[in-house]
Structures are given as structure tokens and as C-alpha cells.
Amino acid sequence: MAAANNNTFRLLLIDIGDRLSMQNRQSLVFFLGDAAPRQILDTIAHDSRSSMNILWDALIERQQIGPNNVNLLISCFQSIGRIDLVKRLKEYTRTPAEPAASFREADD
């Protein structure tokens, strides 16, 4: 069950990363502050070709986020006005592990 939950979480993060504009990424970096290494934050904020996965991995490694801890992301996305992503994260926390395709199918 934990592995399925982790896979669902990772797929959700990939989907969220795909939905962020460059301006969203820059704002997210600002609100994350020192939650991740500065070099990663700078890369995410200035290189649109860079994958958001490097940021997600750093946040997971530092235990800032995880399958059962999305509060930091919810707070940041509220701050940058991405309420659609806040809703996705809240929906994720309410639903048991299920096929990750449901995150890609729902468009707000």
C-alpha cells in the first residue's frame, strides 16, 4: 500500500509540475524560501527546460513533503493563486490510493 501511495504521489507531482508556468515556478521558488537547496531553486526559477522533479526530490529528501505531507505545497500554491492545484492536493489527501491516471484525467 505504501508503494502504491508513493507512486500516486509521484505521479501527482509530475502532473502538477507540468501545469506550472514559468511565472508560477518563480513564485513557487520565492515562497519555498530555504526549503530546498538554493542551486535547485535557481535552476527551477530560471530554466524552463529543467524538470520540476529535481525540486520535488529535494523537498522529499529534506522531508518537507511526502505522500502524507503536502501542507507546504498547499500553502505555496495558495500563495501564488493556483487554487486548482490546491484542490488537487486536497483531493489527493482525501482519497485512498487509486490509479494515478485519475489525476491526469481531471482538468479544472
TrEMBL record:
<keyword id="KW-0053">Apoptosis</keyword>
<dbReference type="InterPro" id="IPR011029">
    <property type="entry name" value="DEATH-like_dom_sf"/>
</dbReference>
<dbReference type="GO" id="GO:0042981">
    <property type="term" value="P:regulation of apoptotic process"/>
</dbReference>
<dbReference type="Pfam" id="PF01335">
    <property type="entry name" value="DED"/>
</dbReference>
<protein>
    <recommendedName>
        <fullName>DED domain-containing protein</fullName>
    </recommendedName>
</protein>
<feature type="domain" description="DED">
    <location>
        <begin position="8"/>
        <end position="91"/>
    </location>
</feature>
<dbReference type="GO" id="GO:0006915">
    <property type="term" value="P:apoptotic process"/>
</dbReference>
<dbReference type="InterPro" id="IPR001875">
    <property type="entry name" value="DED_dom"/>
</dbReference>
